[in-house]
Amino acid sequence: MRAVVLALTLALVASQSVNFAPDFEASKTYVYKYEALLLGGLPEEGLARAGVKVISKVLISAVAENTYLLKLVNPEIFEYSGVWPNDPFVPAAKLTSALAAQFSIPIKFEYAKGVVGKVLAPTAVSETVLNVHRGILNILQLNIKKTQNVYELQEAGAQGVCKTHYVIREDAKAERIHLTKSKDLNNCQQRIMKDFGLAYTEKCVECRQRGEALMGAATYNYLMKPADNGALILEATVTELHQFTPFNEMSGAAQMEAKQMLTFVEIKKA
User: Fold this and answer.
1) Which of 2, 41, 164, 254 has the most Cβ atoms closer than 10 angstroms to its Cβ?
2) pLDDT at residue 189, rounded to an integer
């Protein structure tokens, strides 16, 4: 009887210990298609908006234990300035050409069990180009608990350390893992922000009690495939929204919308 109980216990522990964290095997290069969109303006259609779009291939390969290289290949930048959504994006050939040399430089990052560590880049890579890499690495940031399918935690990311809600569902027959996480950017222990042009303004305590002028949230949807040592990200879609209402006006919030999509293409031998 004890042997049966022990066997059942070990089976339960094994089922709970399935590693869903993304993993990139050594001696292999993972190729992804990447698209990012950043738009600012009023939320209604038929009004002016401005923004940029980046399309590129992304290569990820291991160089040492828990250390990887991230490189962008053939990046293209497009500009938008017109009436949304009628006007098209226009290729920004001069900007793409000016940043091509920086984009060709790979960056190094630490990564273990779905958590991004230090990011190392040469001084030749500007903050603008490095922010594109940070956006990709922010997609890879996943704090997966082995024994829970629904949970909350304070997760570090490009926006700071913010409250994040996880929902994980495994489809064993299709060999797929569906993961959704939502991040409340108004509930952060450490919010990464930069204020400028506010040298002569004064904070209004009563105004903040009525409501925040700046509000934001982000949602992440993942489709992954179980692998031997972890999971392979097949597709990841990110939508981040920030609304700014400096005077608490009704239905008059300006917004910044960012979207990212990372799609698996193939695995090459390094």
Assistant:
1) 164
2) 81
Measured distance CA(201)–CA(153) in Å, rounded: 34
Residue 259, classed as helix, strand or coil, is: strand
Q: DSSP string spanning 80-136?
A: EEEETTTSPPEE-HHHHHHHHHHHTS-EEEEEETTEEEEEE--TTS-HHHHHHHHHH
Longest dimension (CA), the chain: 76
Nearest alpha-carbon partner for 24 in 90, 100, 104, 116: 116
Q: What is the rounded average pLDDT of the residues 95-102? A: 94
**CA–CA separation, 106 vs 131, rounded Å?**
13
Distance CA 116, CA 98 (A): 29
**Domains along the sequence of the chain with CATH:** 19-269 (2.30.230.10)
Helix (H, G, I), strand (E, B) or coil at 53: strand
Cβ partners under 8 Å of residue 168, min gap 6? 20, 144, 148, 149, 150, 177, 178, 179
- CA-nearest of 140, 144, 156 to 107 is 140
Angstrom distance (rounded) from CA 179 to CA 228: 18
Burial 30-65 (b: 16+ CB within 10 A, else e): bebebebbbbbbeeeeeeebebbbbbbebbbbbeee
For position 237, what pLDDT does the model report?
97
| Range with lowest mean pLDDT among 74-83, 195-204, 210-219 | 195-204
Q: In Å, what is the CA distance from 163 to each residue of 148, 182, 191, 224, 263?
A: 17, 9, 11, 23, 26
CB contact at 8 A, 119 and 107 = yes
